[in-house]
UniProtKB/TrEMBL annotation:
Keyword Signal: yes
DNA/RNA non-specific endonuclease/pyrophosphatase/phosphodiesterase domain mapped to chain residues: 62-279
Name by which UniProt lists this protein: Endonuclease domain-containing 1 protein
InterPro entries: DNA/RNA_non-sp_Endonuclease_sf, Endo_G_ENPP1-like_dom, ENDOD1, ENPP1-3/EXOG-like_nuc-like, His-Me_finger_sf
Record's signal peptide: 1-23
Keyword Signal: yes
Domain named ENPP1-3/EXOG-like endonuclease/phosphodiesterase: residues: 63-286
Molecular function via GO: hydrolase activity; metal ion binding; nucleic acid binding
Length: 304
C-alpha cells in the first residue's frame, strides 16, 4: 500500500507539531515545564486546602519565572514562591504593571501582560486586582511578595510587577521594617548560600478589604510572612548566621506601629499559620522541612 507524500507530511506534522504554551492557571505546579524550578525539590507548600485558590505559573517573555497561589475572591496572592538570585539589590521602578490573562480566561499564550489603556470594566477585573484598586488608597502601597531586589535577570525582575504578586501593605511597614528584612535576607543569602535558595512569602487575612465603587475589592493582609530554604550553605559562616541555615522564617504585622519583623523557625511559622489560615495539620512549607541532604550515600552513614 502506497501513501502520497502529502499524507505523510500531514501525519508527521500531527506527531511533531510544536507544543502549545502551557496555560498559566494550572492544576499542579509540577505539571508545567520548569515551573517547579521555583520550588525546593520541585514541591509546593502542602496542607493549604482552599479549593477556590488558583495555581499560577507566572510566565513572562515565554518563560516561567516564579509561582503564585492566588485567591481570586480576595484578589491577592496567598503566597508567591521563587528561587533567589544573587543581586546587588538595586530597585527598578520603570517596569510596567501587569495582569494575568489566564485568571479571566482571556485568550493568550500564558504570559502576563501589561495593563491596556482603557481597561476599566474589562472582564479580568472580576478575577483579580487592577490598578484602580490601589490608585486612590492613601494608607497602602503595592507590596511585592517576590521582590525585584531578589532577582537579577531583567526579565525575572520585570515579572515581579504583576498585581497577582502584590498585596496592600501599610506604607510605613512596606518602606520600613519589611524592606529592611528583604535586604537583610538578600545580603545573607548573597554571602552565605552556596547553592540555590528557595523562598516562600505570603500573608494572612481577617476580612478587611479595600473598597472601590462601594464594593469590596482587595483583601488587606493582617500578617506578612516569609521563609527561605538553602541546604548548601557556608559551614564556616559566623555562628549568628549559621544558626539561620538551612532554613529561617520571619513574621510581621502589616501595621503602622508594632510592625517589627521577627525572625523565627520555619516550624514556629507553620504552627502560627495553622491558627490563621485555612490549612490542615500537615502544613509544610518546604519538602522534608528543608533538611540538608547528606553528602554520604546511605551505606556509609554508619561511618559518621
Amino acid at each position: 500500500m502506497q501513501f502520497s507524500p502529502g499524507w505523510l507530511v500531514l501525519v508527521f506534522s500531527l506527531f511533531h507539531s510544536a507544543p502549545r504554551a502551557p496555560a498559566t492557571v494550572v492544576e499542579d505546579f509540577n505539571h508545567v515545564e520548569r515551573c517547579k524550578d521555583s520550588l525546593y525539590m520541585g514541591t509546593p507548600p502542602r496542607g493549604i486546602i482552599d479549593a477556590k485558590l488558583k495555581k499560577i505559573c507566572q510566565r513572562y517573555a515565554d518563560k516561567p519565572r516564579f509561582v503564585t497561589l492566588y485567591d481570586p475572591q480576595k484578589r491577592i496572592p496567598v503566597y508567591s514562591a521563587y528561587s533567589f538570585k544573587k543581586t546587588e539589590g538595586d530597585r527598578r521602578v520603570d517596569y510596567p504593571w501587569m495582569y494575568e490573562p489566564q485568571l479571566a480566561d482571556v485568550d493568550g499564550n500564558g504570559n502576563m501582560l501589561p495593563f491596556p489603556t482603557g481597561y476599566l470594566h474589562m472582564k479580568f477585573e472580576d478575577s483579580q486586582a487592577v490598578l484602580d484598586d490601589y490608585s486612590d488608597v492613601v494608607l497602602y502601597e503595592r507590596g511585592h511578595l517576590n521582590p525585584d531586589q531578589h532577582q537579577s535577570d531583567p526579565h525575572d525582575r520585570a515579572s515581579t510587577y504583576t498585581l497577582t504578586n502584590v498585596v496592600p501593605e501599610i506604607r510605613e511597614f512596606n518602606i520600613g521594617p519589611w524592606r529592611e528584612h528583604e535586604e537583610r535576607v538578600r545580603v545573607r543569602l548573597n554571602n552565605y548560600c552556596r547553592g540555590t535558595a528557595f523562598i516562600v512569602t505570603g500573608v494572612t487575612t481577617t476580612g478587611h478589604m479595600i473598597r472601590r465603587n462601594n464594593q469590596d475589592r482587595v483583601a488587606i493582609p493582617e500578617d506578612v510572612w516569609t521563609a527561605y530554604c538553602c541546604t548548601d550553605y557556608d559551614r564556616n559562616a559566623p555562628h549568628d548566621v549559621r544558626i539561620r541555615f538551612p532554613s529561617q522564617a520571619a513574621l510581621a504585622k502589616n501595621a503602622k506601629e508594632g510592625n517589627k519583623v521577627n525572625e523565627i523557625t520555619v516550624q514556629d511559622l507553620e504552627n502560627f499559620l495553622k491558627t490563621r489560615m485555612d490549612v490542615d495539620q500537615n502544613l509544610q512549607l518546604f519538602y522534608d522541612n528543608c533538611i540538608s541532604p547528606s553528602p554520604l550515600p546511605l551505606y556509609l552513614h554508619h561511618t559518621i
